[in-house]
Amino acid sequence: MSFNFSFATASQILFGNHSLEKVPGIVAKMGKNILLVTGRNTEKAQQLSARFPSETIVSLFQIESEPTLQVIKAGTKMAQSNNCDVVIGLGGGSVIDGAKAIAALATNKGDLMDYLEVIGKGEALTEAPLPSIAIPTTAGTGAEVTKNSVIKSLEHNVKVSLRSDLMYPNVAVIDPVLTYSMSPELTASTGVDALTHLLETFVSNQANPFVDMICREGLYCISRSLLRAYKNGSEKKAREDMAMASMLGGMALANVKLGAIHGFAGPMGGMFPIPHGAICAGLMAAVIQINIEVLTEQGKDIEKFKELAKILTGSDLAKAEDAIVWADNLIEALQIPGLSKCGLLEDDFPELIKKAKVASSMKGNPVELNDEQLRWMLEKSF
Fold first, then answer.
1. pTM score, two decimals?
2. pLDDT surpasses 80 at 342
């Protein structure tokens, strides 16, 4: 493991119950013309808007599902037409991703495709985005502290990233109270996403001691609190743990690559209307297993997987393979539907494998996997 690394995150992080109350004061230092990006339910956005002084202008923009190219372009047009000087994302990961992309494109010339990875030109942003504030209402993506936006291309049937070091939010406001209203199903799905971020970055081939420290704390939070938050959504400590784990996972993935789970998640989410957390849940145990097996066959170190198992199980005697059993048991307890129930067919495997191999996240997997091994993962998860 290398001790040479760099680390970046949001310029300011405000974490704590009822920290939403501090947002008007933060905004006052940034501007008075706000684009407030929110989701299908506008209740929390309206409550926040009511907190601003009368001279503040608030334009509401809704992202009702996952952000597409068309949605981002529409939001950018609204921000520019209304001369907005601040962008706030209040919602789940899709909302915050959308807000970050809109803030970036509002100040940069050209088309969204000029900057997108994989399907676009991948050009670098040259101008600083509009000042932005990210306020998550779920605990999973960690988007409030990342430098990318995941955007769906309906034309290409894939999810890709708009990514830049300029895209970290100026302020991330993490208020665990905002997550109390999450349903058990959403708690499970987003919680598994946070778990996957921490798990994959912990064993990533780009891991470093600083990110490891972050991942360990996040994994401890999830191992003790995900099921508790799922069973009792109003349990204060469990919600705080999950909000913390989500944020830490976002910090980790913004600084090192993920792995095969997210390598498949982008293509799979683009081709099928499967919730991201369900994809992560379906693939998790198989990916852990294939990585342990291939590393062992190649005579490589699996100490990280042993430590992972010890953290997740809470046992100092745990073996690497115990992480597989723990993951299977967790997904069963959370009652997340399997991939076979989400419309995925074996005939789709070749296309999924082709797209996954060129996905950015696949570059962080602890070992390179061939087509046969990738197919085995899908079959095991199916």
1. 0.94
2. no
